[in-house]
Design brief:
Layout (H helix, E strand, L loop, with lengths): L1 H5 L6 H55 L8 E2 L5 E4 L7 E2 L4 H6 L6 E2 L1 E7 L6 E2 L5 E7 L8 E9 L5 E3 L4 E3 L4
Antiparallel strand pairs: 1-6, 2-5, 3-4, 5-7, 7-8, 8-9, 8-10
């Protein structure tokens, strides 16, 4: 019985150091992967909002074309002018305040955002011959504040029925920087 009381159990210092080293190695592998996942999730905001911009423009063109009696036989289309990048890209979330052309499309973002949004337009009014592309929608952001920007672009044009359609995919530059 006295032998059982004298025996001490527990971990040695070497065993504890090995466990700490293993945890350190696992953390060194997991943290960069986690940061990459977080950045990639932030980029989903850009594609979703650029797609919403496209849908707003398609709706605007359909309403304007119908209200002005424009059809495929007149070879005309309706678009609003260019919208500058707003807000300026930086590493923190910001509020989006639409300018006049984005308001004409009915585009707004209620949440705070990481990216700045804008679009270029080759057409400023209804009734002129269609050009290609009608719009180029884009989002630009700097997720980590290192002045390297990521950019997402979506080009949109019209078909023979003067219906707005977009390219098959996004043009992406420096997706996660």
């Amino acid at each position: 019985m006295s032998k059982l009381l004298k025996k001490k159990s527990g971990f040695t210092l070497i065993e504890l150091m090995i466990v700490v080293a293993i945890l350190g190695i696992l953390a060194a592998l997991a943290i960069p992967a986690f940061i990459g996942y977080v950045r990639r999730s932030k980029t989903s905001e850009a594609t979703g909002n650029v797609n919403s911009l496209f849908k707003s423009a398609a709706s605007y063109m359909a309403v304007e074309r119908t209200s002005k009696g424009i059809d495929a036989s007149t070879g005309s289309s309706c678009a609003v002018g260019t919208e500058p990048l707003s807000p300026s890209p930086n590493a923190s979330k910001q509020k989006y305040v639409p300018a006049e052309n984005a308001q004409a499309l009915g585009f707004a973002i209620a949440d705070y955002i990481y990216y700045g949004y804008g679009f270029t337009s080759s057409k400023a009014e209804c009734g002129k011959l269609k050009e290609s592309p009608i719009y180029t929608f884009y989002a630009q952001g700097d997720l980590d504040g290192d002045s390297t920007s990521s950019k997402f672009e979506l080009a949109a044009s019209t078909d023979s029925e003067i219906t707005l359609y977009h390219a098959r995919g996004f043009y992406i530059e420096n997706e996660i920087e």
